[in-house]
Specification:
Shape: elongated
Number of strands: 0
Helix content: 55-70%
Order of helices and strands: HHH
Largest sheet: none
Number of helices: 3
Distance between the termini: 22 Å
Radius of gyration: 22 Å
């Protein structure tokens, strides 16, 4: 059998924080494009809109502001999401520990008869 070590709650807390940062980093460009499309001004009669679609919005943003333009405003979501995911991971780890009868138990979805 393989030897199992108990999971450190501090590690799960930091793992949740890192997961939260990764979540924001992956989703921020899509959120930036969505917000720019939602807030673009209405074109005057006979004029074309500022962006013709999602891809056009992304390409114009990258051309004018580089790739970093897609990550504008990322600080606020990171400040909010990081602690939230850290606490969620910590709670999940503690909950798993509370269900174990001994440190060697392996939690499964099926009840042993």
């Amino acid at each position: 059998m393989t030897e199992t070590k108990p999971v450190n709650p501090i590690k799960t807390f930091f793992a949740g924080g890192v997961g939260g940062v990764c979540l924001v980093a992956a989703g921020q460009p899509f959120d930036t494009i969505k917000v720019r499309l939602q807030t673009m001004p209405l074109p005057a009669a006979g004029q074309s809109p500022l962006y013709t679609g999602t891809i056009d919005c992304a390409m114009q943003t990258i051309r004018k502001e580089s790739v970093f333009g897609l990550y504008k405003g990322m600080a606020a979501p990171i400040v909010g999401v990081t602690p939230m995911y850290a606490v969620c991971f910590l709670g999940f780890g503690v909950g798993k520990r509370l269900q174990m009868k001994s440190p060697d138990d392996q939690l499964t979805y099926v009840l042993k008869q």
